[in-house]
Design brief:
The protein has 13 helices and 15 strands. The chain is of the alpha/beta class. The longest helix has 22 residues. The structure holds glyoxylic acid and manganese (II) ion (2 copies).
């Protein structure tokens, strides 16, 4: 499975993955998922939001145990973020069959669409729609960098954008959702464990900062006459770092767009996207308010206007304690497993508001993620599959 997926959407220059929602690379990932389902004799379906499902047992019976993740990527993402959860889910189904256990609850493998939000700016679109956490109308109008709407992109990929929306009947058939994911930090490595269980997801969000100044000649405009939004942007990036450091939070400007983007012109517009996360919502609000205030103060000094738009927000997620403890007991009979929080967002965080949800993490020796250098050792991936199979067996077969 890993070898088949390896080439899909991989950029030969960077070595990273560019599997964006509703692009040809995404279509290829989806074809791979469908083939995996059909090769195993699992009942394949896509839901109204384009999420893919592969069922073992009766999908209508209810109380299903569902596992899976996503196949899309960030720009130049790694191989593991998302795909490890989907590949491990299919491998765990194989393992259950090899163990000859008989599930008495339906099992499903899922691929949630557009988890990273790399193309349309909003993360977890597939699971948000399904959970009723994103209105269909708002989703359809999301635009990519070329101005293509999500509705149009879906249509071009052969899906019906008029069908999207909340899917409470589907969620009501799920008794538990377990997402396996590569760890995106080094806690497991430092603890010396190949697999861990998630306790919580930090609250996080994305804010768009528009800095508007005045385009002018780089060679003739006196420094004191400039309204240079790049300066205000730069000060804001530094302020974000300082605020995050003093609050024990995280704040990142990782994406920027400049107009007119000419080497010999002062910019008229700098648009920067802030990603910020913290252990609790009050701290997060404080950090973002502080960054916004710094942007406005510097903007006033530079003669630059500042507009801030919150593009998304995901509240803190505390995973259901009974399911979390059950997982820890199922895979930690011999050696207790670490139970750890994460600053990364996941479809599991969205589903947790509607169904009992848990996560397993697989060790990442460097902690690097959202980068081509993301890595997990084969033995650890195999330990992840065993742990997931143990969990599925414990939940669905006993
Ligand atoms: C998803 O990977 C996120 O945390 O941004
Ligand atoms: Mn990710
Ligand atoms: Mn992910």
């Amino acid at each position: 499975m890993w070898r088949e997926l390896a080439a899909v959407g991989r950029d030969s220059g960077s070595g990273g993955y560019r599997r964006y929602a509703w692009t040809p690379a995404d279509t290829d990932c989806r074809a791979w998922f469908r083939a995996q389902a059909e090769d195993r004799g699992l009942a394949y379906e896509t839901d109204r939001n384009g999420n893919q499902w592969a069922w073992l047992g009766d999908s209508a019976a209810g109380d299903a145990v569902v596992t899976g993740s996503h196949l899309d990527s960030v720009p130049d993402g790694g191989a593991f973020d998302g795909p490890l959860g989907v590949v491990s889910a299919f491998a765990a189904v194989d393992e259950l069959r090899a163990r000859d256990v008989r599930p008495h609850r339906p099992l499903a493998v899922v691929n949630f669409g557009d988890e990273e939000g790399a193309r349309f700016g909003l993360a977890c679109v597939g699971s948000r729609l399904t959970a009723g956490r994103l209105a269909a109308r708002d989703a359809r109008e999301l635009r990519d960098a070329d101005g293509v709407t999500l509705a149009h992109a879906m249509e071009r990929a052969g899906y019906d954008p008029d069908a999207i929306g909340a899917d409470p009947e589907r969620l009501a058939r799920i008794g538990a959702f377990v997402e396996l994911h590569v760890e995106q930090g080094r806690a497991l490595d430092l603890d010396g464990h190949p697999v861990g269980v998630a306790s919580a997801i930090w609250p996080h969000g994305r804010w768009r900062f528009d800095f508007r100044g005045q385009a002018n000649h780089a060679g003739t405009t006196r420094l004191e006459d400039r309204h240079d939004p790049m300066l205000t942007y730069a000060e804001t990036v530094l302020a974000a770092r300082a605020r995050a450091r003093t609050s024990g939070a995280l704040a990142t400007f990782g994406k920027v767009a400049v107009e007119p983007n000419g080497v010999n012109a002062i910019a008229s517009l700098v648009r920067g996207w802030l990603d910020s996360r913290a252990a609790d919502e009050d701290t997060l609000a404080e950090v973002v308010a502080g960054i916004e205030q710094a942007a406005r103060e510097h903007g006033a000094r530079d003669g630059v206007s500042v507009e801030v738009v919150r593009e998304s927000f995901t509240p803190v997620v505390e995973f259901a304690h009974d399911l979390r403890d059950r997982l820890a007991a199922l895979i930690g009979a011999d050696t207790p497993v670490p139970v750890l929080p994460t600053g990364a967002g996941h479809d599991a965080g969205i589903l947790a508001s509607a169904v009992p949800t848990a996560m397993l993490f697989v060790r990442n020796p460097t902690g690097v993620s959202h980068s081509p250098a993301e890595f997990a050792a084969e033995d650890d991936c195999a330990a992840g599959v065993t742990a997931l199979a143990d969990v599925l067996e414990g939940l669905a077969c006993r």
